[in-house]
Amino acid sequence: MIKRLISAAVAVAMAAQAWAGVGVWSGQGPDGGYIYDLLQSPSDTATLYASTRSGVFKSTDSGATWSPMMHGIVGSVGYGYPVAIDADAANTLYVVDSTGHLYRSTDGAATWVQTGYVLPPVAGASAITKIIDAPGSSTRLYLTTVSGVLVSNDSGATFSALNGTGANVLPSGVPFQWLSVDPSNANNLLVGTQAYDAGAGPDVPCIYRSTDGGANWLPVLTVPQGGESYYPGITDISFGHGSEVYAAVDMTLYSSPDGGASWSAVAIGTPSVAYYVTTLKADPSVAGGLYAGGYFGVLKSSDGGQTFNVVVADKTNGFSPNAGADVATAQRLAFSGSTFWLASQEAGLFISTDGGSHWNGSNTGIDATNIRALGLVPAGAGNPPRILAGYGDAFRPSPGIYAGIDAGDGNVSWANSDNGLRAYQIRAITVDPTTTGAVASTVVYAGGRSEQVVAIAPRNGGVYKSTDGGSSWTTIDAGLPLRQPTSSPAPFVGTVRSIVLDPHSCTGYPTCTGPEQTVYATSNGCYVYTAPNPSSPPPPPSLVGYCGSILNTHYLGSYQFRIFKSTTAGMPPVPGSPAWTSSDNGIPQSFIGTSPNYSDFESLLVVPLAIDPSNPQILYAGTSDQFDATQVTHPTLLTGVYKSTDGGANWTQSSSGLPTYPGSPTNLGVLALAIDPLVPSTLWAAVIDINAAYGAPGHIYKSTDSGATWTDSSAGLTSADIRALLVDHPSLASPAVVYAAGGGTSGNPGGVFKSYDAGATWHSESIGLPADAALALTLDKSGATPKLYAGTSSGVWEITETLDTDHDGVSDIQENLGPNGGDSNLDGIADRTQPDVTYVPPHTSARPAPGAPPQNNDFAVQVASQNSGTTCTQTQDVQAKSAAANGPDPIANNLAYRYDMDLLQFEILNCAATTVKVTYPNYTFGKGWTFRFYGPATPGDDSSIKYYDFSSKATLLDAHTWQLNLTRGQFGSYRPDSTGSILFQGGPAFSDRIFGNGFN
Asked: HSE on the CB side for 75, CA within 13 Å?
């Protein structure tokens, strides 16, 4: 989906427009997700900003609808990254992205520009934890970071430390999480620590106060920790009426009556994890007025937190992701009169117009659901296809599963599909193909994870079943091991990540008149106690059969249930009997590490499963070794692919040819597996170093001998993190078509890749996808034209699989629109048949009116010649990209380059260096035009992405044609050299400067 800004002047009122096209991915929802922060304009209560895991969104109609506001921002913004609004200038906002850049907007988030400040990244944490506006000043700004407090007096261009002087300083080496400024006294600052365990030692302060604008700091709150230097996490500090201040400290409420000088704990309910506080909102106009939000919803107090006698939001009044089964977790609250807005963790945004008596979800336009699993109930009996999408990586109450109906009109309508589903995240969805004659009788299995704290919600084993196409669900975890019986034991195997069915186990095979009965699943598993340890003191009451701590010296045990099996469709054969048994004999045991710190641990993870459709006694499992690379230089666990030939009873390593860590027998992680349904001896495995950051591309390996040996099959693959594989046979006579979905970063984007030759070569099919791309796939072949669906961090995206003769990611329909009957380069050969020539048509043939979006976007791209290296004949994903979305391209003296057309983006596979001709048949270039590159100064480096002069590598051949000189792994390409490809984005820009000193 190509999004273009209408104009900077009207972007506040209008969202970026989606220009759908043939062979282009389009986002379909569902809306919602994790709302990290919620801001209300100080000048207009109907204007709100939400920060999510997929970016910043804005509403100008009191939250009824939302629009993305990311123009000019390079990296991801949202989950873990803060946003701030200037109380004295309502249209001025600040945000930091994943590259460490600080951005400023002065037009209500319509466009963002870098302030010039970049904070070095810190491993394992967001370097900037909070951005805070200084009231009374339009240029003063604070940052809390993992190493202290910073202050800027020039609107974020530069910062200096604000950690105090002399003896009155903030502690060094301590991360800080939160800072609040007294709105009635800008010199009164309160800063709180981030949760941080420094080991044994005395109790340490967690809130510091400054009464002189940060020149000096004094500790004002120390929470007893029992002889440990543990810094509790401060998740909120809210100033209220007069001198009242409230803080959420280690998820407990504290109050101060004197501007933060002294503090006391406040019990808001029976001491319980269910009353953990995550957010606070004091009412500055009412003495003692306070709202406390957390795992319990939101409560109201009128006496400063001494009593909370009003339930503002919980599962009984609509603040629930699953129809009242669980209460959502409150993240941020805003209110104006009787209208309340409540952002939640994982469950989206809620609105109440009656002071909190009733709540409804209000997420239209917030495409921030993280979809990690997809399933499809195909069309049948007059019903359109039904897409099941699983919400991933959630540890708070979420909708779990959404059901989408694709009626073929270009839009998917969504509804929660979680009746009876007590799941917080879903990582696997599998549809029983023998039951898909009607939605009402379709059997679906889902795997994921539930809440593990019984005080908040019932726990369960994370495996679920529906017999009505996902309309309702039951938990099927009988036989899974129970956690040690502290409070209430419950099944526990970590996160269930894959589920496969035995196609021969249906009633009446091969006719299959009934559902399949044998089911396999993978999970983290758990350490199951098998016998008392005879060398230890007498053990407590027997725990044999339970799972628990591997350091419990009273019991012997082993890791089990990394793979588990049911022969009764996940249901107990008789009431009270187990439905599942552990089926991972032969999968290596994890190494717990060496005492006393155990930091050299190695943890074995099983993720994908594949089953041989012709002989379901044969199964394959992909395994990975998780470890701390700073502590383990040569891992020892034998990982990779494991194979069973006896229905999962026993497993042996089958990884010959798969890559290993240097100097180690440990194979890189296998996170996806696929088997050819027509030739089951052929398999594909996605391999990646899961312990390293994104960088070198992931690899796909292929076996043609049932897993005995593997060879690299990655030609053309550039994504760094392949997480899903899908195999299709368009016809019985054709080779397998294989799809791969992979993640990436802004500097090294991921994508969806397609192989037409069973994995020998790969071609990108990613036009319109977000840079972090896709981690789940499903294919609908029930209609006249197949549709491919991808799960991303921005919801579900779809693309219609149209004919692409030259496999360049651009449909024949589009290339046929080129000049001269689809022969844009006049060589007598149709563009659609030439992988090195591609045409992108214009939106319209009319010239744009002043202020209208660019429309002279038609261009033809041709790889002109090979300079060195490989063939350089395959262009990929040639597309128009919004110049406005990258923000202004500054020159000097408040001037910026003008872009009369969108940028072009393309990739050239397997290429060391080449020249590329770009022809704009409907535009004439003359004096004042130059060519600009938008991308990283160093390939793969997100932090250096911006506009650059490309005139040294671009030549204007004639009034319509530019020639670009491109080299892999050098300036002018996004991707690092290791990917083997050149990815370019840029275009012609105009400047009418006529004097060398910059005057116009």
From this structure: 23
